[in-house]
């Protein structure tokens, strides 16, 4: 699922950024999100409850990052 979300965030954005800083910030946040998701390691030694909490925490961080990327994109478009 996480990879699918990242596929919808363009690497090079045709969104008409006003300045280079906005574009750089957007790219940095996208790369940071990608690293956060790809660095997740499922530890089979963890109990079911602990593993779910760890996954849920990552999900919340991903959602927060995606919303921030969407806000950045929306500000760049308007």
Strand residue content? under 5%
How many strand elements? 0
From the spread of the alpha carbons, the general shape counts as: elongated
Mean residue pLDDT: 77
Class by alpha and beta content: mainly alpha
| Helix-residue proportion | over 70%
Q: How large, in whole angstroms, is the Cα Rg?
A: 15 Å
Number of helical segments with 4 or more residues? 3
Low-confidence sequence ranges: none
SSE arrangement, N to C: HHH
Number of domain modules: 1
Largest sheet: none
Explain the overall architecture.
It is elongated and about 45 Å long. The chain is mainly α. It is built from 3 helices and no strands.
Topology of this structure?
Layout: H1 2-7, H2 20-38, H3 48-77
Helix pairs in contact: 2-3
């Amino acid at each position: 699922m996480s990879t699918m979300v990242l596929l919808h965030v363009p690497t090079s954005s045709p969104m008409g950024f006003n300045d280079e800083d906005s574009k750089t910030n957007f790219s940095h946040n996208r790369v940071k999100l990608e690293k956060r998701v790809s660095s997740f390691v499922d530890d089979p030694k963890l109990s079911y409850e602990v593993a779910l909490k760890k996954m849920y925490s990552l999900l919340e961080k991903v959602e927060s990052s995606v919303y921030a990327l969407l806000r950045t994109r929306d500000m760049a478009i308007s």
